[in-house]
Amino acid sequence: MSINKQLKIGDLTAKLPIIQGGMGVGVSRSSLAGAVAKEGGVGIISTAQIGYDEEGFEKNQAACNNRAIHKHIKRAKEIAQGNGLVGVNIMVALKHYAEHVKEAVAAGADVIISGAGLPMNLPELVSETCRTKIAPIVSSKRAAQLILKMWAHKYDRTADFLVVEGPKAGGHLGFSREQLNEIDTMDYDEEIRQIIACKEEYEKRYEKKIPVIVAGGIFDKTDIEHVFELGADGVQIASRFVATEECDASESYKLAYINAKEEDVQIIQSPVGMPGRAIRNALIERVEKEKEPIKKCYNCLAKCNPVKVPYCITKALIDAVKGDVENGLVFCGSNVGRINQMMSVHELMQELVS
User: Fold this and answer.
1) In this structure, how many other beta carbons lie within 10 angstroms of the beta carbon of residue 8?
2) Which domains does the chain carry?
3) Distance between CA atoms of 353 and 97, rounded to whole angstroms?
4) Distance (Å, rounded) from C-alpha 7 to C-alpha 321?
5) Half-sphere exposure of 108 toward its Cβ, with a 13 Å CA cutoff?
6) Nearest Cα to 216, choosing from 231, 202, 226, 207?
7) Rounded to 5 degrees, what are φ and ψ at 123?
8) Which of 149, 192, 321, 346 is the most buried (most CB within 10 A)?
9) CA atoms within 13 A on the CB side of 48
10) What is the mean pLDDT of residues 45-66?
11) Are the C-beta atoms of residues 44 and 89 closer than 8 Å to each other?
12) Which residue has the higher pLDDT, 309 or 238?
């Protein structure tokens, strides 16, 4: 089966059917996304506290994040040199979700992928006449049906593509702890087939192809071939891109991935209110015993109450991406234990498709 084929999203085309997953805070910004797009894939920038290293961030996070969205989309496109596509991942759970979407469109993002909640009002924020394509992240047929039905009813519009994120993904997960505890007995292939089947109604209704991108636990060419056999049009891969020279995270962060073993991976409860997959470290051990004192609120999450959450997720993610991987939060996918070397984005993309 050929993996070296194009991914068509409406009138946009990527030479390769590989989307690099968005990882925040600061793990996937312009350096990584631009390098992936340069190879013909779809490079994704995470907007979650994207401006963490901008001057004035401590005083005005919102303005710095908006400025950084423009800066990194522009820079990623310059790196891409006209190849591939450059987009953003925007979490529904963000307090400034709508502003991030509007800024990304204004900055010329090719695609917007939205998860960590159901992006019910995304079509309201992105005009169908603009170039930017939109996709929800779904983890079940039920979520896919709910979003597609709502978008059709309220906006007379459908998704440009779907990202189906399975239980082996990194970061925030659209599954209960009970489901994640039974991951080995879960028939997620059947869920993927059902999602592919349920979107066909909307393809006919709107006379357009809705590509399905499968994410979560995609590690190598064999995994890609498998989901293609299920009917997928492309894959989204995140964890493997962390251990690349172009990844925007610190060297310590990348080494945490390379040195991690399977037994180091743990399901945690994120302040976002969802389970998440991360590398067990000193921070996780501490917050299992008691709350981490929160000295400053970074106004990142719409439903975060600093008095109640166990730790500040912004501070934890920033500490990690800067290099303090013991006292920061290091999200990862289930296959992180299989990553054992650093490589370039070019080498990784070639390995995945050749």
Assistant:
1) 15
2) 7-249+340-353 (3.20.20.70), 251-338 (no CATH)
3) 34
4) 31
5) 11
6) 226
7) -65, -25
8) 321
9) 31
10) 97
11) yes
12) 238
SS3 label, residue 40: coil
Task: State the virtual CA torsion across 79, 214, 116, 80 in degrees, nearest 10.
Answer: 0
Cβ distance 244 to 35 under 8 Å?
yes
Q: What is the dihedral of CA 251, 252, 257, 262, to 10 degrees?
A: 160
Q: What is the CA radius of gyration of the chain?
A: 19
- How many angstroms separate the CA atoms of 111 and 187, rounded? 30
Q: What is the mean pLDDT of the chain?
A: 96
Other Cβ atoms within 10 Å of 224 Cβ, number: 22
Q: Could you give the maximum distance between any two Cα atoms of the chain, in Å?
A: 54
Q: How far apart are CA 290 and CA 266, in angstroms?
A: 18
pLDDT in tens, 173-226: 999 889 998 888 899 999 999 999 999 999 999 999 999 999 999 999 999 999
Q: What percent of the chain has pLDDT over 70?
A: 99
Dig out the tokens for 309 from the structure: 């959450």
Whole-prediction pTM value?
0.97
Q: Rounded to an integer, what distance in angstroms lies between the CA atom of residue 325 and that of residue 14?
A: 34
Sign, CA torsion 220/162/39/86 = negative
- What 3-state class would DSSP assign to 184? helix
Short-list 110, 340, 111, CA closest to 239: 340
Helices (H), 107-250: 122-125, 141-155, 177-181, 188-198, 200-206, 221-230, 239-242
Instruction: Inform me whether the pLDDT recorded for 60 exceeds 80.
Output: yes
The residue assigned the tokens 């992180």 is 336
Which distant-in-sequence residues (6+ apart) come within 8 Å of 78 by Cβ? 34
